[in-house]
Amino acid sequence: MTTSCGNLIWNHKGQAMVTAGRGCNPYESLYIYYLEGLPNKEEEHGLGPDFLGNWVEGESSFLFFSRPSKETVQIILDSDERLRLIDEFHFTHEQWMGGAITANRLSRFLIVPPWDDQNSGNGEIKMLLDPGVVFGTLLHPTTRHCLLGLLEMSGALSCSRVLDLGTGTGILAIGAALLGATSVLAVDTNPLAVRTAARNVKLNGLAHAVTVMEGRAEDFMDYPFDLLIANIHYKVILALVKKKGVLQKKSFILSGLMRSQARDIKREFSRLPVEITQEWDHDMIWHTIMGRMSLR
Q: 8-97 belongs to which CATH class?
């Protein structure tokens, strides 16, 4: 499929690929079909070149297309009685993502979508990031705060092992690798996020340092990592902290927390050998906590 900005090519793995075209977002409009049930991989692969991916929520699917595709969706509905169309939506990509996807600077980081040809300046760390329809860009304050946390501890990241829970686009895992981490495991429960993050890892030439896996955060806490990054749901973070799993790591960055939730997490930490080294908040709403094990 060719857009006014470039090309979207459907690859053999059923994944939308952005190719030629500079200066504007090639995704343009998004047509979303909300289904009860989960199509199998063969059904997804047959959805054609306008299919961008399937956002899975429990036993529901949100099929994303770059053009109106109800007839295409109807084909799999007719062939699979497990599936039922619940609703359909149309958004611009900017509406869905909460803002325009353009080159953005955050301290030493320059985050650039692959359709933008902006070059990095002196001392800047350039990251290519194609979000597709997955969240995890500089548009959200929790992502910005986590990247700032990585920059704060950049001196300690060299040769370190990092676990990134709720990786989304892979932005934090990639940021850690660009700052010197030699082994990064990026985890997400959403298969579309996993595919998107894996593509971004390859875009940055970091497949040797970053591994992307699908799974639940709770299932990865026994991995021997030096830094834990978790920008995920509060209930999952609270459960991890109460199990003291975070103490298996030397350092941590926890985010995605509202004010009362951050207060609850700090209350749990007050009972544990943990030192909070820095905190960020956005309008007293979104909170990020950075800390490490304490020797006390």
A: alpha beta
